[in-house]
Amino acid sequence: MRALILSHIYADPAQRQKLKELAGLGWSITLALPGGTADMDGTIRIVPIPASGSSGEPGGQRWSRRVLRRVLTDVRPDIVHIEEEPGSQAADVAVRETQRLGIPAVVFGWQSLPAKRRFLEARRYQRTLAGASGIIGGNRLAQALLAEAAPAIPSLSLPQTGIVPPARADRSTGPSLSLAYVGRLTPERGPDRLLRACGQLLGPWTLVVAGTGPEQEALEDLAQKLGLAARTRWLGALSKAQIAALWTEVDCLVVPSRTTPEWVERASPAVLDAMAHGVAVVASTEGVLPELVGDAGLLFQTDEELLISLQELLTAPDQRLALGRAGRKRVLDRYVDAAIARSTDAFWREILARQAGAGQG
After folding, report:
1. Would residue 226 count as lying in a domain?
2. 296-322 per-position pLDDT tens digit
């Protein structure tokens, strides 16, 4: 079976593990990239598509329709998988060409809040979804928006790429609860909610804050007023390696995000990274967080529920370890590249089966 994948993100070879996993499942993978040169990455054939526009804004680039048509004719894939937003020119021309050749196309989208699109983008968005055989949202919010625009088309919620978990996640804990906040210090990410909850905890605890942002000074003042300064460390921005080391020092990651009309938590690498390392997660029910955490962490809606969750973990060290084990299992089952490739493979085969059934009918 042959699959042609179109996406600018795989210009980075480090992002291609999902494609290699798909090849391991029996697919012959051809990867179309905007620009670059023809190449091979293991068994993955890479073909360049000339594209105009800024490489710094790959979503706005215009892919050559003529070359894309030639690639489709040459490869003759059984399915085309387009990981460019449906309103983009690349997705639009790709779907139109697959329709012309009678090849089913699956379209991926990340947009997680309703968007106001200009006329041309809105037209491309509608035309792309109308011509797609399947749609994948990068999370359930994105899936719902895509399915609303194309309710008759099979849809799926699936991350674009997976994470690489550590080989082991052996952990221990003690009587004190070690908390972590990792992210930008902005109102919508809710670090003030965490500080206020910490101010009411009964028992031994510490907090590390990894990140910077416009609210840092106000948050440090709040911590001072609440009497939390001695228990709180402000680490500033950390590298990936430093964050990986941080997970060995903490019991729990807290993600107290708020949704606003302009922002929603559409992905959280910190949550998946923490879970992969066996760190318990306490998260709000906003955006993608319930989908990521599932029943492998503690979810809260109100500030009172946040306090109750933290107090529960403070008094129950064994529960921290149990949630950490459950979180790691959830990541290994769902959010590594091999798992995402298996789900993609199943969805592709569902699309092809539906097409075959429609052809027989």
Report:
1. yes
2. 999 999 999 999 999 999 999 999 999
CATH of residue 295's domain is 3.40.50.2000
**Secondary structure in 3-state letters for 181-201:** EECCCCHHHCHHHHHHHHCCC
Q: How far apart are CA 285 and CA 73, in angstroms?
A: 46
* All residues at 6 or more sequence positions from 66 whose CB lies less than 8 Å from its CB, including other chains: none
Q: Which structural domain, as residue segments, surrounds residue 208?
A: 177-334
Least Cα distance to 178 among 151, 203, 212 occurs for: 203
The number of distinct structural domains making up the chain is 2
* Pairwise CA distance, residues 245 & 113, whole Å: 34
Q: Are residues 284 and 301 in contact, defined by beta-carbon separation less than 8 angstroms?
A: yes
Whether residues 203 and 105 fall in one domain: no
Tens of pLDDT, residues 271-299: 999 999 999 999 999 999 999 999 999 99
**Does residue 45 belong to any structural domain of this protein?**
yes
Asked if 345 contacts 351 with a C-beta cutoff of 8 angstroms, the reply is no
8 A C-beta contact, residue 97 and residue 128: no
Nearest of 331, 254, 333, 258 to residue 292 by alpha carbon = 331
Query: Are residue 314 and residue 199 in the same domain, yes or no?
Result: yes
Sign of CA dihedral 74, 80, 85, 87: positive
Tokens of 313: 């973990």
pLDDT band at 59 (very low <50, low <70, confident <90, very high): confident
This prediction's pTM: 0.94
Pair of tokens at residue 117: 């699109």
Distance of alpha carbon 328 from alpha carbon 335, whole angstroms: 10
Does residue 210 sit in helix, strand or coil?
Answer: strand
Residue with tokens 């050749």: 101
pLDDT digits 0-9 by tens, 6-15? 999 999 999 9
Q: Is 236 strand, coil or helix?
A: strand
Give residue for tokens 């790691």: 328
Listed in sequence order, the residues at least 6 apart from 182 whose beta carbon sits closer than 8 Å to its beta carbon are 210, 211, 238, 243, 246, 253, 270, 274
